[in-house]
């Protein structure tokens, strides 16, 4: 590896992209990436080439079922946490009584709940799609207007999780630096901040992403559940119960009495998940190290990395880009 070559997880490598994507790339606006050499703007949002290839394949191949549940997030909004919680909620009958053999103890939330647009799954189509029991649970970072038609046309349910953009940005910056080889060194925070404020980073702009789902949730509250990381942190019990209601698997009287919600929240807490061997020293098939998904898991950590002025800049850009949507981030 030459010193200028970033270490790239498989799903970010620039080889093995579809011919459809290869033909499209030269027609698209291009920017320098934080992790990949370049990112491309497609229908208003930015992607590394392999993710774009996965997105196009996903749009062409994915057939949603009415019973599917999709967790949607912008990267670094708390996906790993919600993947674990939704997996526990939807599969709680299987593990009732004892958590000792729970899948989360030995598997990463990212293996149990795969991303739809991950190029490895959708180069052709998710290889083991047929083995997913109903209700199938997937995750995605796709913006609302780029979801496969079958998702919009089916009755499947979407859970959208967003997070304070300043913490999201800092989390992403840390993750990007983990992904870069030691040889290439850290990306300067200021350089990343410029790109973030222009929306030019994977799945950006952040505010457009959140607004797409906020609008969908206002129009179809029975299909799209809009949730914030900070709300989950503040009162997770309330929101887990609301999620169960929304997903059509409400917690019964007995479950509410026997501490089912406590059990799920304990199992999925930052401290529990990050202490598991699989999340400490594991690697995903994409070659991403599982520990990179667990850093601090705190609200307001941006203050430890950015100046007040930098924070105000993100606030200002966020305000400017709200377009009177009513959404407050
Ligand atoms: N269980 C739990 N509880 C609370 N917070 C958690 C949890 N697991 C992961 N995290 C924090 O979420 C941040 C990673 O974001 P994502 O999981 O969305 O990453 S990804 O988009 O799937 O790559 C990242 O946030 P930062 O710590 O601020 O970087 C993780 O630490």
Automatic annotation (TrEMBL):
<protein>
    <recommendedName>
        <fullName>Sulfotransferase</fullName>
        <ecNumber>2.8.2.-</ecNumber>
    </recommendedName>
</protein>
<keyword id="KW-0808">Transferase</keyword>
<dbReference type="GO" id="GO:0016740">
    <property type="term" value="F:transferase activity"/>
</dbReference>
<dbReference type="InterPro" id="IPR027417">
    <property type="entry name" value="P-loop_NTPase"/>
</dbReference>
<feature type="domain" description="Sulfotransferase">
    <location>
        <begin position="66"/>
        <end position="326"/>
    </location>
</feature>
<dbReference type="Pfam" id="PF00685">
    <property type="entry name" value="Sulfotransfer_1"/>
</dbReference>
<comment type="similarity">
    <text>Belongs to the sulfotransferase 1 family.</text>
</comment>
<dbReference type="InterPro" id="IPR000863">
    <property type="entry name" value="Sulfotransferase_dom"/>
</dbReference>
């Amino acid at each position: 590896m030459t010193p200028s070559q970033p270490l790239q997880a498989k799903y970010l490598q620039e080889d093995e992209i579809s011919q459809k994507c290869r033909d499209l790339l030269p027609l698209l606006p291009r920017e320098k990436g934080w992790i990949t050499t370049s990112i491309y703007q497609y229908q208003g949002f930015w992607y590394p080439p392999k993710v774009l290839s996965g997105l196009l394949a996903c749009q062409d191949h994915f057939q949603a079922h009415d019973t599917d549940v999709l967790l949607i997030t912008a990267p670094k909004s708390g996906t790993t946490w919600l993947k674990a919680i939704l997996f526990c909620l939807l599969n709680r009958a299987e593990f009732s009584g004892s958590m000792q053999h729970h899948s989360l103890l030995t598997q990463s939330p990212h293996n149990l709940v795969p991303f739809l647009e991950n190029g490895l799954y959708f180069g052709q189509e998710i290889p083991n799609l047929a083995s997913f029991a109903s209700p199938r649970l997937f995750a995605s970072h796709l913006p609302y207007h780029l979801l496969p038609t079958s998702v919009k046309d089916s009755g499947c349910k979407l859970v959208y999780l967003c997070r304070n953009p300043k913490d999201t940005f800092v989390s992403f910056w840390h993750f990007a630096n983990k992904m870069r080889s030691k040889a290439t060194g850290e990306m300067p925070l200021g350089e990343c901040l410029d790109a973030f404020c222009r929306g030019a980073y994977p799945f950006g702009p952040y505010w457009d992403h959140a607004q797409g789902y906020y609008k969908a949730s206002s129009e179809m509250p029975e299909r799209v559940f809009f949730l914030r990381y900070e709300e989950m942190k503040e009162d997770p019990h309330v929101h887990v119960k609301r999620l169960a209601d929304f997903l059509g698997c409400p917690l019964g009287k007995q479950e509410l009495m026997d501490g089912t919600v406590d059990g799920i929240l304990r199992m999925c807490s930052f401290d529990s998940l990050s202490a598991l061997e699989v999340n400490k020293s594991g690697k995903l098939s994409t070659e991403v190290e599982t520990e990179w998904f667990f850093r601090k898991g705190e609200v307001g950590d941006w203050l430890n990395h950015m100046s007040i002025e930098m924070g105000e800049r993100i606030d200002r850009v966020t305000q400017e880009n709200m377009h009177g949507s009513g959404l407050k981030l």
